[in-house]
Amino acid sequence: MRPKSIVTGGAGFIGSALVRELLANGESRVSVVDNLNSGKLANLEAVKDQVETHLVDIRDYDELARIFAGADVVYHLAAIPSVPRSIKDPIPSHDVNINGTFNVYRAAQAAGVRRVVYAASSSAYGDTDVLPKTESMSPRPKSPYALQKLVGEYYGAVFSSCFGVESVSLRFFNVYGPRQDPSSAYSGVLSLFMKAALTRTAPTIFGDGEQSRDFTYVEDVATLVRKAATVPGVSGRVFNAGNGGRYTLNFLWEQVQKLEGIELKANYGPPREGDVRDSQADTVAAIRELGHTPRFTIEEGLRRTLEWYRAEHA
Ligand code: UD1
């Protein structure tokens, strides 16, 4: 039998966590669509016998429609991430994040997929006057990436209302954890902090380091994504996928140093263009309506993450 779940971006850091989550919760096989632009087959190594991997770009509509045939749910996580990358080089991220997402919805419709769960982004909020950020606030995207991810949400709502494809958009808040790739300047800041600590190299903090983020452990996000596929009566909606806390970069670098038992002053550079100052999720709607309360504190998440990087580093 063909898998009933498809994960686009399933070889990525978050996508592969979702694949493991689905397999650990009752699915016997999962299909992955990934062009390995940033994903890695190594992320799926431990579960590869239960994964059908399609090395396909989401801009290829015909391939998507063929792969989606017979599926029940498409988890759409494939994207070109990063706020600064979308400012430096907006065309590829526009093409993948908007046109590719449109293809995913279209192919889902053609294939009769019941629901698409979409990885939206907390960046859509931009700078808000009030924290935490609730889903009823007007979005104020500050970068091409933020706008692209917001367009994907709107497409989800429209495919739900006009084309009969159920959709749920989850705004991911700065996801971190094992397997986040620290190899690029565009990598998530915590992966860069982990690498800096293990190689005893000072990280660079952009700005004064007092900007804050709701860092959310990858397994919590994966659980919420899985649950969003089955809850009835929420099609067309947008939910925060955050932890609900808020930590500054200065605090986090302190914590990483403590965990690793080092003292290493960070370098400070100019603030990054398109950066949001503070980010924190209101988690009430996700808890009440999707039934998921985040499980991992920042302390526990950092500890587990550093443990993984240590093993990799060794
Ligand atoms: C944004 C989104 C996030 C999304 C991600 C995808 C917000 C609030 N969050 O993350 O939901 O998943 O894009 O790419 O918009 N920094 C340093 N030094 C470094 C690297 C980064 O100081 O070497 C700083 C950045 O300037 C920023 C913070 O760390 O202030 C976090 O950066 P990053 O990890 O890239 O994520 P966001 O851009 O916040």
Kindly describe this structure:
With 314 residues, this protein is of the alpha/beta class. The chain has 2 domains: 215 residues, NAD(P)-binding Rossmann-like Domain (Rossmann fold, 3-Layer(aba) Sandwich), CATH 3.40.50.720; 66 residues, UDP-galactose 4-epimerase, domain 1. The chain has 10 helices and 13 strands. Helix 1 crosses helix 7, helix 6 runs parallel beside helix 8 and helix 8 crosses helix 10. 48% of the residues are buried. The mean pLDDT is 98. The site of uridine-diphosphate-N-acetylglucosamine (UD1) has 23 residues, from helix 6 and strand 8.
Low-confidence stretches: none
- The first-level CATH class of the largest domain is given as Alpha Beta
Structural domain tally: 2
- Overall geometry: globular
- Briefly note the structural class of the backbone: alpha/beta
Helix content: 25-40%
Quaternary structure annotation: single chain
- Here the CATH topology of the largest domain equals Rossmann fold
| Total number of beta strands | 13
Instruction: State the major sheet.
Output: 7 strands, parallel
Number of helices: 10
CATH architecture of the largest domain: 3-Layer(aba) Sandwich
Q: Which small compounds were modeled alongside the protein?
A: uridine-diphosphate-N-acetylglucosamine
Q: SSE order in H/E notation?
A: EHEEHEHHEHEEHEEEHEEHEHH
- Average pLDDT taken over every residue: 98
The N- and C-terminal alpha carbons lie at a distance of 40 Å
Query: What Rg, in angstroms, do the CA atoms define?
Result: 19 Å
Give, in spatial order, the strands making up the sheet with the most strands.
Answer: 3-2-1-4-5-6-11
Q: At the fourth CATH level, what is the homologous superfamily of the largest domain? A: NAD(P)-binding Rossmann-like Domain
Portion in strands: 15-25%
